[in-house]
């Protein structure tokens, strides 16, 4: 039996002192690494050699003072049905979350926390994009007990005088486990172009920071590199391009391994629990009632491996553009069907007819993606024959891309649920229950009205779903029905 009293202010584990200190050092190094490198390389930058050791000692003492003060002024407790966290010594903060508004309680461990054998606990609500409340260093037994208490709403205001409970083990059912071969397939099927662009952006940022400190040398070496590349053979350039692609693939594989190592998705009463990670171990609980929609996606390579990427979307406030996402990166067809049946019941949407987007949508996409860029570039490039060749290829490519979007743009709907399909190269599906809808927008431009077309935008607590360019009479019927369904539904959306 684990007992805890949350009515009294409780601090983190004493190991939190070390964690706070190491985190402070880490943040300082990340912010001032270029300056530190300059001081290390140019040792004679100061006349008096004692300046650096003295400055280092002062900074070290300041870090220790900050860690102690932050630790002593960080505590949490439960009062009047609210979880309260107080922190800060110069600027004090008080974070208050009603227990009934808690969306999910997750635990994580980065490398420092794993070394100290402590756990971070994060509490999500529907009010913010990020983690509204985070406790950085708790003993594992205490963190697990607190996790179960808050996840299952065991704690309540009536018991705040002596908040004690017995933590019992809950039987879990393993739904999905990713083996090393699965992770290899997932890594291969990642977007390597995006990884390569991230590498370039990161390298460019590093170069700018180095250039600010070593201006003359940076300009000299960059000039030499540009001259060398301009005089290099085509074979060398091709080799470098292939090498860059190989590095992108390897980084994608490494990132997949680090993020999803030992990934397990389990069914726990009326919730799912996800475990994964090496450097940052995460333990996320997803109550069924908090899940607003289920998204899944596949692509050409993933399709060959029979892999879908699953995303559970949770509630956030309407003012935020981002959403709370929890993903399962490598789900097979049988796992997908099991989860859909678990969340939505028997699949009756497949029995309803697919309603496709009107072909006029293809014309609109092609004009904006294909013809408009060519039209804007023509006054500047029309004398060049290469421009006309590139324009023809661009129009051909965008027409094919627009056709793919049109072909995958459809939806199924019945009295209880809706499933929306979209995509071009990849294929995406979004499914939700109708009672989760909070508002509906009927949109019709002048050009749509001339062709008796309209678009719908469905809003839930995690964002919006769009149904583009369907018959306006059908759109009006769906619009009226969804508004009626939203008004009469007595089910809780979270």
From TrEMBL:
<dbReference type="InterPro" id="IPR014529">
    <property type="entry name" value="UCP026631"/>
</dbReference>
<keyword id="KW-0812">Transmembrane</keyword>
<feature type="transmembrane region" description="Helical">
    <location>
        <begin position="365"/>
        <end position="382"/>
    </location>
</feature>
<feature type="transmembrane region" description="Helical">
    <location>
        <begin position="234"/>
        <end position="258"/>
    </location>
</feature>
<feature type="transmembrane region" description="Helical">
    <location>
        <begin position="388"/>
        <end position="406"/>
    </location>
</feature>
<feature type="domain" description="YdbS-like PH">
    <location>
        <begin position="71"/>
        <end position="149"/>
    </location>
</feature>
<feature type="domain" description="YdbS-like PH">
    <location>
        <begin position="411"/>
        <end position="482"/>
    </location>
</feature>
<protein>
    <submittedName>
        <fullName>PH domain-containing protein</fullName>
    </submittedName>
</protein>
<feature type="transmembrane region" description="Helical">
    <location>
        <begin position="50"/>
        <end position="72"/>
    </location>
</feature>
<keyword id="KW-0472">Membrane</keyword>
<dbReference type="Pfam" id="PF03703">
    <property type="entry name" value="bPH_2"/>
</dbReference>
<keyword id="KW-1133">Transmembrane helix</keyword>
<dbReference type="InterPro" id="IPR005182">
    <property type="entry name" value="YdbS-like_PH"/>
</dbReference>
<feature type="domain" description="YdbS-like PH">
    <location>
        <begin position="260"/>
        <end position="327"/>
    </location>
</feature>
């Amino acid at each position: 039996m684990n007992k805890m009293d949350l009515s009294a202010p409780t601090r983190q584990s004493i190991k939190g002192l070390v964690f706070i200190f190491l985190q402070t050092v880490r943040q300082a190094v990340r912010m001032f690494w270029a300056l530190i490198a300059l001081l290390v390389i140019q040792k004679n930058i100061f006349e008096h050699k004692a300046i650096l050791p003295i400055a280092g000692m002062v900074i070290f003492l300041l870090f220790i003072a900050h860690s102690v003060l932050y630790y002593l002024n960080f505590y949490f407790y439960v009062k009047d049905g609210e979880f309260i966290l107080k922190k800060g010594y110069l600027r004090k903060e008080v974070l208050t979350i009603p227990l009934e508004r808690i969306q999910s309680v997750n635990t994580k461990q980065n490398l420092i926390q794993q070394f100290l054998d402590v756990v971070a606990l994060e509490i999500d609500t529907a009010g913010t994009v990020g983690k509204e409340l985070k406790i950085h260093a708790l003993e594992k037994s205490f963190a697990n007990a607190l996790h179960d208490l808050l996840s299952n709403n065991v704690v309540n205001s009536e018991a705040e005088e002596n908040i004690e409970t017995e933590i019992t083990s809950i039987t879990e059912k393993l739904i999905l486990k990713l083996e090393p071969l699965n992770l290899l397939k997932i890594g291969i099927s990642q977007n390597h172009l995006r990884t390569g662009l991230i590498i370039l952006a990161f390298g460019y940022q590093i170069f700018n920071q180095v250039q600010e400190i070593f201006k003359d040398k940076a300009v000299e070496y960059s000039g030499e590199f540009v001259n060398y590349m301009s005089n290099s053979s085509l074979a060398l350039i091709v080799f470098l391009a292939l090498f860059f692609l190989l590095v992108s693939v390897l980084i994608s594989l490494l990132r997949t391994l680090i993020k999803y190592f030992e990934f397990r998705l389990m069914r726990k009463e009326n919730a799912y629990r996800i475990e994964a990670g090496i450097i940052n171990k995460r333990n996320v609980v997803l109550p069924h009632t908090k899940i607003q929609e289920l998204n899944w996606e596949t692509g050409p390579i993933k399709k060959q491996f029979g892999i879908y990427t699953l995303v559970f979307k949770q509630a956030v406030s309407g003012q935020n553009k981002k959403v709370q996402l929890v993903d399962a990166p490598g789900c097979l067809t049988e796992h997908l069907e099991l989860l859909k049946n678990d969340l939505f019941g028997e699949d009756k949407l497949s029995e309803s007819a697919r309603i496709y987007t009107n072909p006029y949508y293809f014309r609109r996409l092609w004009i904006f993606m294909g013809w408009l860029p060519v039209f804007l570039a023509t006054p500047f490039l029309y004398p060049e024959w290469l421009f006309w060749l590139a324009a023809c290829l661009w129009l051909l490519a965008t027409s094919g891309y627009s056709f793919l979007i049109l072909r995958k743009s459809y939806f199924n709907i019945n009295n209880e649920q809706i499933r929306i399909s979209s995509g071009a190269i990849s294929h995406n599906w979004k499914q939700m229950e109708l009672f989760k809808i909070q508002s509906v927008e009927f949109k019709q431009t002048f050009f749509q009205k001339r062709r008796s077309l309209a678009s719908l935008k469905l809003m839930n607590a995690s964002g919006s779903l769009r149904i583009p360019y369907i018959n306006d009479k059908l759109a009006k019927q769906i619009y009226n029905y969804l508004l009626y369904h939203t008004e009469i539904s007595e089910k809780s959306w979270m």
